[in-house]
Amino acid sequence: MVSKLGSFLSKVGFHLEARGPELDIVCGMEVSNKTNYKVKYKNRIYFFCSDGCKSHFEMDPEKYIA
Ligand SMILES: [Zn+2]
Q1: CA gyration radius for the chain?
Q2: How far apart are CA 65 and CA 12, in angstroms?
Q3: Average pLDDT over residues 22-33
Q4: Which of 2, 41, 46, 52 is deepest in the core (most CB within 10 A)?
Q5: What pLDDT does 14 receive?
Q6: Phi-psi region at 34: left, alpha or beta (left = phi > 0; alpha = psi -120 to 50)
Q7: In sequence order, which residues have a C-beta less than 8 Å from that of residue 21 and are 6 or more positions away?
Q8: What whole-number distance in Å separates Cα of residue 21 and Cα of residue 35?
Q9: What is the mean pLDDT of residues 16-44?
Q10: What is the CA(3)–ligand 1 centre distance, in A?
Q11: Dist. CA 54 → ligand 1 center (Å)
Q12: Residue 10, CA atoms < 13 Å, CB-side half-sphere
């Protein structure tokens, strides 16, 4: 029963993650996944609210992913 609930929750989590809005991991705000400020890094696309946040991420991606 517990594992059933766990797999249900991970399915829901995946569902939410797959559909946006996306989180700007530099400043923490939600951004539309239609924004032009995005970077592909390690097979994932990261979205940003502005060119500033995008450049911060590009300078040191690992800092924000960790
Ligand atoms: Zn931002």
Answers
A1: 14
A2: 22
A3: 94
A4: 46
A5: 52
A6: alpha
A7: 30, 31, 32, 33
A8: 10
A9: 88
A10: 37
A11: 8
A12: 6
Question: What are the φ and ψ backbone dihedral angles of 40, each rounded to 5 degrees?
Answer: -95, 125
Whether 25 is in a domain gets the answer: yes
- State both tokens at 12: 């829901």
Residues with C-beta atoms within 5 A of ion ligand 1 = 24, 27, 49, 53
> If you ran DSSP here, which 8-state letter would residue 9 be given?
H
Does the pTM surpass 0.70? The reply is no
Q: How far apart are CA 3 and CA 19, in angstroms?
A: 25
Mean pLDDT (the chain) is: 84
Above 80 in pLDDT, residue 40? Answer: yes
Confidence of residue 21 (pLDDT cuts 50, 70, 90): confident
User: What's the total number of domains in the chain?
Assistant: 1
**Residues of the domain holding 64:** 21-66
